[in-house]
Amino acid sequence: MSTQMRRVSPGDVPAVMELEPQLFGCGAWSQAIFTEEATRADRYYVVLTEAGHLIGYAGLATGVEATVMTLGVAPGHRREGHATRMLSALLDRARQSGAESVFLEVRSQDDGAQRLYRSFGFVPLGVRPGYYQPEGADALVMQLPLKPPRRGPGPVGAEAIEE
User: Fold this and answer.
1) What pLDDT, in 10s, does the model give residues 41-51?
2) Is the residue at 157 inside a domain?
3) What is the DSSP string of the chain?
4) pLDDT tens, position by position, 84-115
5) Least enclosed by CB within 10 Å: which of 54, 90, 103, 160?
6) pLDDT single digits (tens) 56-92
7) Residue 37 is part of which domain span?
8) For the chain, what is the domain count?
């Protein structure tokens, strides 16, 4: 089935709020937090839909040191390349906005997510003990140094995101 990636809209919030606790358990964001995050001028959030249903979302805080704020794919749609597509879109936006590096925190026990981030070149910097609350799980901090943005047309097959 075909998927579509686009910028998040206010109409996406209820579907995100349905998926959020499935992805992040007791550490899930509230609707107020997600809405504030997704509407800030210094943020870039995308959703991924299939047949009109939200199957994933991701967000980036832009700046010289950009930060991946969230990235999640619905359980029934994992291992299909969706997280890779969304992370690619976030990194493209980070480069376009002039970021010199991208940071993120990932659960120390989440080997699958760590493999994804390492495949993009993220390197571990250290551990934040008890970062994820309320369960107190540790976070691995990772960084991806970015190269200056390319001039001219993007690579063949580059995906455009609907604005």
Assistant:
1) 999 999 999 99
2) no
3) --EEEEE--GGGHHHHHHHHHHHHGGGPPPHHHHHHHHH-TTEEEEEEEETTEEEEEEEEE-SSEEEEEEEEE-GGGTTSSHHHHHHHHHHHHHHHTT-SEEEEEEETT-HHHHHHHHHTT-EEEEEEEEEETTTTEEEEEEEEE-PPPPPSS--TTPPPPB-
4) 999 999 999 999 999 999 999 999 999 999 99
5) 160
6) 999 999 999 999 999 999 998 999 999 999 999 999 9
7) 3-145
8) 1
Q: Is the residue at 155 inside a domain?
A: no
Task: Find the largest Cα–Cα distance for the chain.
Answer: 47
Take residue 142 and report the two structure tokens written for it: 């990772």
pTM: 0.86
Evaluate whether residue 74 is within a structural domain.
yes
Owner of token pair 């991924």: 48
CATH number of the domain encompassing residue 38: 3.40.630.30
Instruction: Band the pLDDT of 157: cuts 50, 70, 90.
Output: very low
